[in-house]
Design brief:
Layout: H1 2-44, H2 55-59, H3 61-68, H4 79-105, H5 110-134, H6 137-157, H7 163-207, H8 234-279, H9 288-344, H10 347-387, H11 395-408, E1 415-416, E2 420-421, H12 424-449
Antiparallel strand pairs: 1-2
Length: 450
Amino acid sequence: MSSYTDNESPSRSQKSGTKMLKGKDDFQSNFSSRFRDIKNLRQIHKIPWIKETSFNTAMGGVRHGLSLIASWPMMMETWRMTVIWLFYAAGFFVCVCGCLGGAITARKDLQRLVAALGQAIPVTVIAIKYGLFKTQVKPLNQILKSMESDWESENLNSRRDDPEAIRRREIMTNHARVPRIFFNVYTSVVTICWILFTIAPATKRISSRDQSAPNANKLPLNSWYPFPFSHSPIYQIMYVFEVFLGNVMVIAHTGIDSLLVTIIFHLCGQLEILRSCIEEFRTEERSEEMMWADVKFIVKRHEWIINSARSLEKSFNKILFSQLLAGTLHICLAGFSVLQAMESNNTSVFVKFGLLLTMALQQLFIYSLAGDYLTSQGTLIRVAAYKATWYKLPPSVSRSFLLIMIRATKPITLTAGKFSVMSLPNFTSLIKSAVSYLSVLRAMNTDNSN
């Protein structure tokens, strides 16, 4: 018995040692394979088209800017964020009242009144936009979560050697690049304009010999308050207050507009991807169940895009309505100030109000361009369904393509106040209206001067 045990113990030890070696080899092979996968992933990130395929990258500085002013829709609602938002809203209200007071005090002089309204109108619109945007956080949160899931699904499902995945990724990347360019250019124009309005009063006060004079104690905004603010230290306090709130207004103004443009272009990218899926609908060597599964996916995806666009339009139509009304007046007043500065050779006023005019034109143009692009992409779904090989499909499946074409006949639009569609033809008519108002204002100024 003992000899049998002694003879068997070495074999058992050899088997256990063999298992340990095999387990060690399996662990090393699994580790090396995973290391190769990680290395391949690192190499994938070096590819140019993969750099922008991230939700955070697609949002760019919009997410950071709106988070600073407690307005990012995906931000968790806390009492601290509520307090910060209420503080900014109260500051906006004070600035609006100050700008309107400055316009009232300048009512006897047409040129001063136009210059004051040229600042009061955008400040008022930004304050209204900031308040209306807060009421639409929940629907925007749902849209942004869907956008994030779209990017995550593409990052998980696509591979380097899959041409369809590469094309989908390129479509999403290209549609994410345009809003980022708009955000950078738009933010630069608005920031430079605000810096000029901030520096001008300080430069005039420093260069003035009599700092107690009324013209030497102007604030960045052409505002008036019901208390003496032209003496130290109240003047310095109000100056810092308006500079700080002006920076917050710049972030709110550019962030909200850029968020709208980013969501619209993302929906346009999804419509283009859906259009390519419809045009390349394969019928060869496929069962009817597989065809039905693809048609079901196309219908559900199309319905999701339509519902998202409808929810976006519902969230922004009041904001766009205020922008449309104020934008027409803003272009008229800023253009009048630019023409007056050209006649009087006032370079500083020409640059400041020229940038204000550029800002208003750029804002309305990108709204109109995005709305027009969304409508055109939605209409192309009908063309794609017509171009597909529906005639090779079974009758039950081909009738689904007819329903898709019927549904795509109703345009996907972005409206201002539910009555004016944001499109390029309407943008040209708006510019014509602003120019006609400008000609009337010029005629009034000529009569007053005579």
